[in-house]
Every structure is written in C-alpha cells, then in structure tokens.
C-alpha cells in the first residue's frame, strides 16, 4: 500500500489520464504528492472532472491535450512539461483503444489505428521522456498492458499484439536505462470494471467471474495501487517486470 505524500517533488504524466484506469492513477499519484499531468485527446470535460477532483483534495494537476500516436505532438508536449514543471519523473503509458472483430473481418485501418495508439504511442511518449529522465538519473516508466497480451482473445488480434509487444519493448528499455536510475515495468490488468468492460453482457460477466479465483472483477483503484508502488523509491530494484493484477485469472 502506498504511503502518504511519498511522491512529493515528482512530476507524473499519465496518458489517457481522464477516465477509467488513467483517472484512478492520476488521482492516486496526486494524493501521494506528485504533480500530475493529465493527458487527454478529445474528452475535455472528463479531463476537467479529474483535475477538479485532484484540486479539491489538495493535489496539483494540469491538463495536456495531445494524441499519443502523433510523434510531434508528444515530443512538443513532453518538452513543455520538462520546462514548465521542472522535470518529468514518472511516465504512465495508459492510453489505449480497442477495435475488436475477428481477424477474417478486421479492416487494415483498424489494425493500424490500434497499433498507432497502443504501441507506437508508447514508443513516442517513452522516447520523448527518456533523455530528460537520464539527465535526472531517476525515472519510472510504467506501461499498462493487459492479460490479453499473455493469453490472447478471439476478436482482439490487434489489441493482443500491441499488449504483447509492449512487454518486449519494456524489457528492452529496462536493459538500456537501468544504470541511469530508471526502471521500466508493465502492469497487466485482468478484467477491470471500466468503460471497456461495461459493454459486456451480464451473461458474459457471470462467465468471467467463474474463471477468476478472487470472485470479482478488478477496479481501477486496484491497478492504481500497483502503479504507485512501481513509481516509488521502494520499487527501485524492480525493472523489466510484468506485474499481473488479475485476481488469479492468470497465475504466472
């Protein structure tokens, strides 16, 4: 469990930080004293709601609109964050989309768009942040993967490929920057109560629950707790790791 205000003095960027897991992570990191940059692409109202909740609790947060799949937008935003906020210490690569259908019916543009956001977006953000983190000689890169990257799922070949690729990318980055005081890890949630799972029918949810030893779906807060641990000083010797948060659905 995260201790109070242990991230004071740290600046954290959470991509896709206005809703779901990203919102829970933004609120949690801010409650620990981090200055939080909440990235969003289009839903300004949701971003404002997250910012206001952080502010009411006495935390610090700022909204940044950019598309993680656009390298120039990302690079400009990250440079501005370093200049305006005095650094960037924690990067949470959370932004992600789905465009589900069976492979035989999948449109090339749906494959490409999921790749652009879920995987290329992580490259864009991580590469843009890494030089500054190396100069600081301290950094935490935490990417939100998925159990689907480990087990696959019918109708999600594009999404599964991005999440599996994220694990290989992260392990490679971890080896490159460990000597500079930077860790890189993946958190792979199982089935979490978010907008993505809200579209499931009650029958599908009941079938899923039978497979989860914990007997419940996870919450965004469950994932946020794992993020704040990996963002802490105490996790400084953990890198290149995939942390599964799935209630026992995948015991790896």
Report on the architecture of this protein:
β2, α2 (44-56) and β3 form a beta-alpha-beta unit. The model has no long low-confidence stretch (mean pLDDT 95). It is globular, with a radius of gyration of 17 Å. It has one domain (11-242): NAD(P)-binding Rossmann-like Domain (Rossmann fold, 3-Layer(aba) Sandwich), CATH 3.40.50. The chain starts with 10 loop residues before the first strand and ends in a 7-residue tail after the last strand. It has helices at 20-31, 44-56, 71-85, 108-136, 148-151, 157-177, 195-198, 202-211, 220-230; strands at 11-14, 35-40, 60-65, 90-93, 139-144, 182-189, 242-245. It has a seven-stranded parallel beta sheet, sandwiched between helices. It is of the alpha/beta class and 252 residues long.
How would you briefly describe this protein structure?
With about 250 residues, this protein is α/β, with parallel strands linked by helices. Helices cover about 45% and strands about 15% of the residues. The protein has one domain (about 10-240): NAD(P)-binding Rossmann-like Domain (Rossmann fold), CATH 3.40.50.720.
